[in-house]
Structure formats: C-alpha cells, structure tokens
C-alpha cells in the first residue's frame, strides 16, 4: 500500500470511523489494488469499470459491489481534495442495480391452515382471528389495519375503507370469512363510546402494530408453521394468491393501493415461481430423473 492510501485511511480514523468501517475500507481498497495490478492512484475510469466487471464475474452481488464502489469513490474524492489527483475516475460509474428480493408469501393451503387454527375462545383470540383474516382478505398493510375505525366498515355492501400511504383512500371488498370473524369480534368488543378504533388492546385503546406482529408470531409457532410469519406476509399472500387465480395485475394494483404498477409487478415473479413448481411436479418431461418413453416401465 502506497503512502497516499495510508494517509487516506489515517484520515478516516481521525474522522471518527469505527474500527469495523475502517477495516471494510481497507479491504475494499486492497482488493482494488489487487484487481488493478497497480496503485489505485494511477487507475483510469476504464480500469475501475473492468475491476467492477471482474468482481461481478466472480459472483459478488450488487450490494457488495455498491459498497466497494462507495469506498473507491471516497478514496478518489479525498485524493482530489488533497491535490494528489486532478480527476475522479469513479465519477459516473454505477454499480449494478440491487437485486430485488421477492416478497415472502404463504402457500394457499398454508395461509388457510394458519388462520383456521386461530380458534381460541377469549376476546383477544376473536380479535386476532378478525384482524388477520381482514389483512389477508383485503391485502392490508399493518399500519392500515391498526388505523381502521368502526365506521370504515360498510356492512351492507361488505366493503372496507382503507387509508393508505399519503392519506390516499381506497375501497376493498371484504371476504365472507373475514366478515364473519369481524362480526364475532364486534360482539365481544368492549370500549368507551368515545373509542372509535376497530381493533383494541387489552386496556381498551387502539391496538398497536408491534402487538399485532408479536401475536401473529406466537400463533404461527403454536400452529406449527414452518417459517417465521409476519403481518406483511399475509398481504403478500393476498396479492400472490389473487394474481394466481385471476391474472389481473391492474386489479391487484388497485386493491393493494400501489401508486405504480411496477410495485405490483414483483408478484408476477412469485406467480411464475408457483407455475414453475406445478410444471416441475406435474409434467412428465420436466423432471431430471424422468426416463425416455422407450425406457419407461
């Protein structure tokens, strides 16, 4: 490592960076030097582009590449500020777009099994079944579910008024099961006349999001779920299952309250995964161990 790189790392240490951050910067810069085969101070933008390409070819994900490029940018800006280099070869470089993580959704039978087993006799059990059925039935965000009021339910038409992001309102149909569970909960709901919140905690005040998350996690454990379940997974399941059944992306967008169709399109990947599993399990020529017709018994 040449003197300029040591000075740069000393500068970071003096500026109060943590030992962990300093170690990451050092590793990123040493990696750059190894990829270049020459001091980073002498690199061109083409050299840096090739270095990123090599890391990508080695299997580094977009998050790691973005972090390394950020370290390199800090180095070249420091070199410029200290008159150790005239230009910034990292200017204009971009790391590959970050991989989009697919939302986790329960299978149809998994969602049904979980909700059907929330069947205790207490007031809180009835409330839990109602709120989780409603989230799954209407594709609610957690914040939307806990902000619901009594007058948001239209019992005559089985509709729910939802206040989404940016205070935008939308209407969603309430399924028969969710409506039945809502009626069960409202028969047991006890609160002062001034309390308009639909879902209440133990002390008769509006239910908080963390409690909804904790109760669902506990129910999932009790009912033997094979994975961690959180309220947003019920929203993802709603979108994925509706898309599998209808194929109507625009309708799913409206029901989810997405401003842009691109936000909804990620569920098409989930839908394709489902179709691919069905194909792999059912098509006689899909399995790798399938025998040719003339070898089949």
From TrEMBL:
<dbReference type="GO" id="GO:0005737">
    <property type="term" value="C:cytoplasm"/>
</dbReference>
<comment type="function">
    <text>Site-specific tyrosine recombinase, which acts by catalyzing the cutting and rejoining of the recombining DNA molecules. The XerC-XerD complex is essential to convert dimers of the bacterial chromosome into monomers to permit their segregation at cell division. It also contributes to the segregational stability of plasmids.</text>
</comment>
<keyword id="KW-0132">Cell division</keyword>
<feature type="domain" description="Tyr recombinase">
    <location>
        <begin position="101"/>
        <end position="280"/>
    </location>
</feature>
<keyword id="KW-0963">Cytoplasm</keyword>
<keyword id="KW-0131">Cell cycle</keyword>
<dbReference type="InterPro" id="IPR044068">
    <property type="entry name" value="CB"/>
</dbReference>
<dbReference type="InterPro" id="IPR011010">
    <property type="entry name" value="DNA_brk_join_enz"/>
</dbReference>
<dbReference type="GO" id="GO:0007059">
    <property type="term" value="P:chromosome segregation"/>
</dbReference>
<keyword id="KW-0229">DNA integration</keyword>
<dbReference type="GO" id="GO:0003677">
    <property type="term" value="F:DNA binding"/>
</dbReference>
<dbReference type="GO" id="GO:0009037">
    <property type="term" value="F:tyrosine-based site-specific recombinase activity"/>
</dbReference>
<dbReference type="InterPro" id="IPR011931">
    <property type="entry name" value="Recomb_XerC"/>
</dbReference>
<dbReference type="InterPro" id="IPR002104">
    <property type="entry name" value="Integrase_catalytic"/>
</dbReference>
<dbReference type="GO" id="GO:0051301">
    <property type="term" value="P:cell division"/>
</dbReference>
<dbReference type="InterPro" id="IPR004107">
    <property type="entry name" value="Integrase_SAM-like_N"/>
</dbReference>
<protein>
    <recommendedName>
        <fullName>Tyrosine recombinase XerC</fullName>
    </recommendedName>
</protein>
<dbReference type="Pfam" id="PF02899">
    <property type="entry name" value="Phage_int_SAM_1"/>
</dbReference>
<keyword id="KW-0233">DNA recombination</keyword>
<dbReference type="Pfam" id="PF00589">
    <property type="entry name" value="Phage_integrase"/>
</dbReference>
<feature type="active site">
    <location>
        <position position="258"/>
    </location>
</feature>
<dbReference type="InterPro" id="IPR023009">
    <property type="entry name" value="Tyrosine_recombinase_XerC/XerD"/>
</dbReference>
<dbReference type="InterPro" id="IPR013762">
    <property type="entry name" value="Integrase-like_cat_sf"/>
</dbReference>
<feature type="domain" description="Core-binding (CB)">
    <location>
        <begin position="1"/>
        <end position="80"/>
    </location>
</feature>
<keyword id="KW-0159">Chromosome partition</keyword>
<feature type="active site" description="O-(3'-phospho-DNA)-tyrosine intermediate">
    <location>
        <position position="267"/>
    </location>
</feature>
<dbReference type="InterPro" id="IPR010998">
    <property type="entry name" value="Integrase_recombinase_N"/>
</dbReference>
<feature type="active site">
    <location>
        <position position="232"/>
    </location>
</feature>
<feature type="active site">
    <location>
        <position position="165"/>
    </location>
</feature>
<dbReference type="InterPro" id="IPR050090">
    <property type="entry name" value="Tyrosine_recombinase_XerCD"/>
</dbReference>
<feature type="active site">
    <location>
        <position position="235"/>
    </location>
</feature>
<dbReference type="GO" id="GO:0006313">
    <property type="term" value="P:DNA transposition"/>
</dbReference>
<feature type="active site">
    <location>
        <position position="141"/>
    </location>
</feature>
<comment type="similarity">
    <text>Belongs to the 'phage' integrase family. XerC subfamily.</text>
</comment>
<comment type="subunit">
    <text>Forms a cyclic heterotetrameric complex composed of two molecules of XerC and two molecules of XerD.</text>
</comment>
<keyword id="KW-0238">DNA-binding</keyword>
């Amino acid at each position: 490592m040449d003197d300029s790189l040591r000075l740069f790392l000393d500068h970071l240490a003096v500026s109060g960076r943590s030992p962990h951050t300093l170690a990451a910067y050092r590793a990123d810069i040493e990696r750059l030097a190894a990829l270049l085969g020459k001091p980073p101070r002498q690199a061109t933008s083409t050299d840096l582009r090739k270095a990123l390409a090599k890391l990508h070819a080695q299997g580094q994900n977009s998050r790691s590449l973005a972090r390394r490029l950020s370290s390199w940018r800090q180095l070249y800006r420091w070199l410029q500020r200290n008159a150790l280099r005239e230009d910034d070869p990292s200017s204009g470089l971009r790391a590959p777009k970050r991989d989009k993580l697919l939302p986790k959704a329960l299978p149809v039978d998994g969602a049904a099994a979980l909700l059907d087993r929330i069947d205790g006799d207490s007031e809180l059990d009835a409330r839990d079944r109602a709120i989780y059925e409603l989230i799954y039935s209407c594709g609610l965000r957690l914040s939307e579910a806990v902000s619901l009021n009594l007058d948001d339910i239209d019992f005559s038409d089985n509709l729910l008024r939802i206040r989404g992001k940016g205070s935008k309102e939308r209407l969603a149909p309430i399924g028969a099961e969710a409506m039945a569970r809502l009626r069960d909960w409202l028969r047991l709901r006890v609160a002062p006349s001034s309390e308009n919140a639909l879902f209440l905690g133990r002390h008769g005040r509006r239910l908080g999001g963390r409690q909804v998350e904790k109760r669902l996690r506990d129910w999932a454990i009790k009912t033997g779920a094979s994975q961690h379940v959180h309220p947003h997974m019920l929203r993802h399941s709603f979108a994925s299952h509706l898309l599998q059944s209808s194929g109507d992306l625009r309708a799913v967008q409206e029901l989810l309250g997405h401003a842009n169709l691109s936000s909804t399109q990620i569920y098409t990947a989930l839908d394709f995964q489902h179709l691919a599993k069905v194909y792999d399990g059912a098509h006689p020529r899909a399995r790798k161990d399938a025998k040719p017709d003339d070898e089949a018994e």
